[in-house]
């Protein structure tokens, strides 16, 4: 808890002066004012976050947090829970979607076992920080204890701090955990007090009757646990997940360390949302990668106040959207660094 408290105390707003200086630098480039749109917003904010008006393309790491979910026993996913450790092994072999797209963008994938119900042997690229062997079924009681939720948050916080110390210049979030769209829907429903139906979708691809059942299970879980919408840690503890907590911690740690963080899809955004509800300045440090097909994603993004960079109809998670968005963010940094000014190119200003 002490690390969490210290981390929250270390988060402050992004410097407005730096934002203005970065925009002034962009405005001198050989283009009509603002004509690179969102790429300018990305470059400006990256520069201000890091306090460097010429941020170079650097080392990028995607942390894919893995955890299991007790709620799976209610039949809320199209896949069995064994897929969680099986996919972790796939990540470690480099064969999953996130591995391919991270290689494409020049990012490294690190898998973090915060809560998988399986004992992994140590392996390169695997960080074993298991807090529990999965959450408990939140339709029958609290998913976690408050201590477990804080411990998982602190795993993410420590990873962000270590990444910064190691010279990583941008981190991304990802996750793997069969059943984890259910806690993600529960989190946004609890915080926004909207109906479960409005924010619950098909995850791995459940049919209509399974979707009706999933909605009822989540409603029952919220009714039973009654998480306090004004206490994000209570929401995380009662209806969240260990990997979602790890992501929330990574996002908090990134903000505290002035490290830009790229947030992946629906489940990652649930983690980022918890972090944003814990501290109002966190949103300034994050980049939303893409719009997920999951219907509840939009409401999460609106609550955070973030506009996603891409819309590729993704519904995979793992960090796949974050991987691609990192490439786009790098493009923004190159504009800031490599594009000629009007003076350098001898081009007349308007
Ligand atoms: C083979 C496979 C690879 C995945 N990679 C990410 N997910 C995604 O699907 C899961 C969430 O959906 P639900 O709540 O319906 O279980 C998570 O593990 C998420 O990362 C996968 C799912 C499967 C089946
Ligand atoms: O948007 C996501 O991250 C997502 C959506 C469905 C299933 N798994 C992940």
UniProtKB/TrEMBL annotation:
Tell me the organism. Answer: Geomonas limicola
Q: Please list the GO terms describing molecular function.
A: nicotinate-nucleotide-dimethylbenzimidazole phosphoribosyltransferase activity
Functional summary from the UniProt entry: Catalyzes the synthesis of alpha-ribazole-5'-phosphate from nicotinate mononucleotide (NAMN) and 5,6-dimethylbenzimidazole (DMB).
Where are the catalytic residues? 318 (proton acceptor)
Official protein name in the record: Nicotinate-nucleotide--dimethylbenzimidazole phosphoribosyltransferase
Look up the record and name the pathway of this protein. Answer: Nucleoside biosynthesis; alpha-ribazole biosynthesis; alpha-ribazole from 5,6-dimethylbenzimidazole: step 1/2
**PANTHER family named in the record:** NICOTINATE-NUCLEOTIDE--DIMETHYLBENZIMIDAZOLE PHOSPHORIBOSYLTRANSFERASE
Q: Which reaction does it catalyse?
A: 5,6-dimethylbenzimidazole + nicotinate beta-D-ribonucleotide = alpha-ribazole 5'-phosphate + nicotinate + H(+)
- List, alphabetically, the CDD domains matched: DMB-PRT_CobT
BP term (GO), one:
cobalamin biosynthetic process
Which EC numbers does the record give? 2.4.2.21
**Per the similarity annotation, which family is this?**
Belongs to the CobT family.
Q: Does the keyword Glycosyltransferase apply?
A: yes
